[in-house]
Design brief:
By secondary structure, this protein is mainly alpha-helical. It is built from 27 helices and seven strands. The mean pLDDT is 88.
């Protein structure tokens, strides 16, 4: 870190001191019970719970990923995560209230309450193990990988050393202070992360001339037409013509037409459910989720998008391709040496203009002496995910550089601490305490929780060491369990869904994801996948993988429903009494004559539609303003205002009486 000014060091030092103080301050409180350690005693107000959701959903990998998407695809690629605002709107007005009423600690615990019986126990143990050992550790892995990339770029620190240091920083207060340490540090981290992202975006945008500079670059051909598109344009043909459906358009349609309802987190991600469960009551949980959706989708994305756009004007993509077929003779720091079939040696420079010391192509992973290459094969390229870090190194002044680095560290820690704690909660609550050691003191279980947190971090670090791409891990995570969303929706509103339905959907989804990610050699050898723009030239895209995973999982769930008998309504009475869900619960409702049927569906749907309009209106407005699209800006703001009115009306109707 020799390049940092003493003022930048001071900012980082103050931040670390505050984090350590919070870890010490709340250690005693977290040790009182598992509810205190994992759920802050179920006492959080909406603004703390919601801000913690926002902080943990943004890590140091996020700006790198978003800036890389903008560089490689365009603004429209953000629909890969913007689409989840639709499920987020349902979470605000339906699922947040039901999760809080259920009174569970984790998503896995819900299944035993919802289904009952031996199958539910198997499902709870399976989900507890899966979320403790795989899903949360995957998130830890890509966050650790991002931290390593930032450390390597900024400070030339070895990847293993960077992972060790970064993990240790977050582990202290997460392990000692539990959920209390997580949510209290998240408040500081949210402010820092937002401030740092805004500061870099402002400086970068001004440096390239703002909107005028961007439009000039687009006219000059420096920016691809799709780069500034908020939605990918169609091809030249008509709607029914194959040329209409470009790869980009097909991908965006999958995001908006499939992804949001098919994903495992359709009724709430694990981290969000944990904070809803930690809220004071169901209304506080609802408001926390509403604040999260507004801040997550409407407040943050354009800071990262702006940096991605600006970086294209000063950090052009560079790639090195093989001029002819041959063999790699050497991979040097500044060049690749090739030998063709005639024995002629060619030296391909990696530092030639427009490369610079901080922006140069790097050899593709696995390229080594002796590798055979074809003519035109891509051998080295610049890392789009690393452009964000180069921008902050180049253009931030003293003080602001320290703030932005502190904000990236804060973003990293807010996600690491959450998923360490969350993985431990699944292991302790749904595996260890439920099936392995049902007795034991509070102190014993909290000790196990702390050890499980460290174990999750170790697994995440190991995964991070095995890969080089944040994007690959993220897309694999989105595909994993990608088809269970419909079952997760139905289990709240239809009594007929059974634990076996969920087990079948989950098993099919996991199997399909692994096969389509690692076992498609046979398909490729027999012509590839016939999915048109979702598999150009037969090669499956990530979006095509999502469609196939969802189809496989849905088929398995439907077959399970068709060949299993209906559950005994008496086993669902406790769930119905506690949650009071809307929907098709007739046989169960008949057994609970003292429970008034809920009459809130209209208000919930009104609120959800209004919430979606509010979020999308506020989310798109900055983009229309930056790109100087005045008419669209006015429409976007009007949609947001109308949505706010619907949300307000729904909140009034759903207020406790």
């Amino acid at each position: 870190m020799a390049g940092l000014h003493w003022l930048d060091w001071a900012i980082l030092g103050v931040y670390f001191a505050v984090m350590l103080w919070i870890g010490v301050r709340f250690a005693g409180k977290a040790s009182k019970s598992l509810d205190e350690y994992f759920l802050s005693g179920r006492s959080l107000p909406w603004w703390i719970a919601g801000t913690s959701m926002v902080a943990t959903s943004f890590s140091c990998d996020t700006p790198l990923l978003i800036a890389g998407w903008v560089r490689d695809y365009g603004i429209w690629k953000n629909w890969a995560w913007w689409c989840y605002a639709a499920s987020g709107a349902l979470q605000v007005f339906l699922f947040a209230r039901w999760w809080r009423r259920a009174g569970v600690m984790t998503k896995a615990e819900l299944v035993e309450l919802r289904y009952g019986g031996t199958q539910a126990k198997v499902l709870r143990a399976t989900l507890g193990s899966l979320h403790a050992l795989l899903t949360n550790t995957l998130i830890l892995a890509w966050v650790l990988l991002a931290a390593a990339k930032i450390s390597e770029s900024l400070f030339a620190v070895d990847k293993v050393v960077a992972l060790s240091i970064a993990g240790t920083l977050a582990a202290f207060y997460s392990v000692t202070a539990g959920m209390w340490g997580v949510v209290m540090t998240d408040l500081v981290q949210f402010v820092l992360a937002m401030g740092g992202a805004a500061g870099l975006a402002f400086v970068a945008w001004e440096h390239v001339g703002g909107s005028a500079g961007t439009h000039a670059a687009a006219l000059a051909g420096t920016l691809h037409p799709e780069t500034l598109a908020l939605f990918p344009p169609p091809g030249p043909g008509t709607f029914l013509d194959a040329s209409f459906w470009t790869v980009s358009l097909a991908a965006a349609c999958v995001y908006l037409g499939v992804s949001w309802w098919a994903v495992e987190s359709v009724d709430g991600a694990g981290a969000a459910v944990q904070r809803i469960a930690a809220s004071k009551d169901e209304r506080e949980g609802l408001l926390a989720t509403l604040w999260f959706n507004v801040a997550h989708y409407a407040l943050r994305p354009w800071f990262w998008i702006v940096v991605g756009l600006a970086s294209l004007l000063v950090l052009p993509p560079i790639e090195v391709r093989a001029p002819q077929a041959g063999t790699v003779q050497a991979v040097e720091r500044d060049a690749l040496v090739l030998v063709d079939e005639a024995g002629t040696t060619t030296r391909l420079a990696l530092d030639a203009a427009p490369a610079a010391p901080d922006w140069r192509p790097t050899p593709r992973p696995g390229l080594a002496a002796g590798t055979t290459v074809a003519a035109g094969e891509r051998l080295a390229w610049t890392d789009s995910e690393g452009a964000y870090v180069v921008m902050l190194k180049r253009y931030l002044p003293v003080g602001l550089l320290g703030l932005v680095i502190a904000s990236l560290v804060a973003a990293f820690m807010s996600t690491i601490d959450t998923h360490m704690n969350l993985a431990a909660s699944f292991f302790v609550n749904d595996v260890y305490r439920r099936f392995l050691k049902r007795g034991g003191s509070t102190g014993h279980h909290i000790l196990v929780a702390r050890l499980a947190s460290l174990g999750a971090l170790a697994i995440g670090a190991w995964i991070a060491l095995q890969t080089e791409s944040i994007r690959d891990l993220f897309l694999f995570f989105l595909a994993l369990l990608g088809g269970v969303g419909p079952v997760y929706l139905l289990r709240w509103v239809w009594w007929r869904v059974r634990a076996s339905t969920e087990l079948a959907a989950m098993a099919a989804s996991v199997a399909a994801t692994f096969f389509l990610s690692h076992g498609t050699g046979w398909v490729a050898a027999h012509g590839g996948f016939p999915l048109g723009p979702l598999a150009p030239e037969g090669v499956l895209t990530p979006e095509g993988r999502v469609v196939l995973v969802v189809a496989t999982s849905l088929l398995a769930a439907l077959l399970s429903l068709a060949f299993t008998r209906a559950p005994d309504p008496r086993t669902l009475v406790e769930f119905y009494r506690r949650v009071r869900p809307v929907g098709a619960w007739g046989p169960v409702r008949a057994l609970c004559p003292d429970v008034a049927p809920p009459r809130e569906l209209g208000a919930c749907l009104t609120g959800a539609l209004g919430g979606l309009a509010l979020v999308y209106g506020l989310m798109l407005a900055p983009g229309f303003w930056l790109l100087e699209r005045g008419g669209a800006l006015l429409v976007s703001l009007a949609v947001a205002a109308l949505g706010a009115g619907f949300v307000r009306a729904a909140l009034r109707r759903l207020a406790p009486r």
